[in-house]
């Protein structure tokens, strides 16, 4: 499978105070949470620029294109569709597959430190399988990959809850949906997640490694 047949998508919301990372905002402030959301967006986009693929950023709300055109480079910008998260993801995957992608991997912006090798592995798994999941430690998933056909996992899910991963797997009852699973990783949504990120970045630096998240790391120095 060649890189042009790989589609790498990012779902992102414009970082407007009061509209993003509301659980983190409740413990700090809407303005601070919006800064965290923007830093995560910029770091995810910057890191994914190193992945050889057709990169697409699906943004929300629909009038946010001017912001993303200024903030992000190297991605084709498309608005997210209508409906709940499942409906919007299903529409994104269907469009990517319809326009020639043989393998589609989709991430959000809540996991700025996710290893790039996980994404490469997802594309490798999709050479033979139709579905790959990257479980998130909060009970959801940080990555979803599909190839050839859409699995029945976009309806009947309690989105934004700890039940997402379990409900998703439960919908794969038919044998025709073998599943590849990546290592778990963490999202940054809650104050405890921010503390985890802070410790992780410090540990990487102490080990002589570049965390690769300059915008997020800069905010760690000014944590309220």
Describe the structure.
With 224 residues, the chain is α/β, with parallel strands linked by helices. The chain has one domain (3-220): Spore Coat Polysaccharide Biosynthesis Protein SpsA, Chain A (Alpha-Beta Complex). The protein contains 8 helices and 7 strands. A 7-stranded mixed β-sheet has the order 3-2-1-4-6-5-7, with helices on both faces. The longest helix has 19 residues, at 30-48. It is globular and about 50 Å long. The N and C termini lie far apart (47 Å). The model has no long low-confidence stretch (mean pLDDT 94).
Task: Output the CATH homologous superfamily.
Answer: Spore Coat Polysaccharide Biosynthesis Protein SpsA, Chain A
CATH class: Alpha Beta
Low-confidence stretches: none
Instruction: Provide the succession of SSEs.
Output: EHHEHEHEHEEHEHH
Give the strand line-up of the largest sheet: 3-2-1-4-6-5-7
The global form is globular
Fraction of residues in H or I helices: 25-40%
Using only C-alpha atoms, the radius of gyration works out to 17 Å
Overall tally of structural domains: 1
Main sheet specs: 7 strands, mixed
CATH topology: Spore Coat Polysaccharide Biosynthesis Protein SpsA, Chain A
CATH architecture: Alpha-Beta Complex
Output mean pLDDT: 94
The overall strand count is 7
What structural category do the secondary elements indicate? alpha/beta
Strand content: 15-25%
Question: How widely separated are the two ends?
Answer: 47 Å
Task: Output the number of helix runs.
Answer: 8
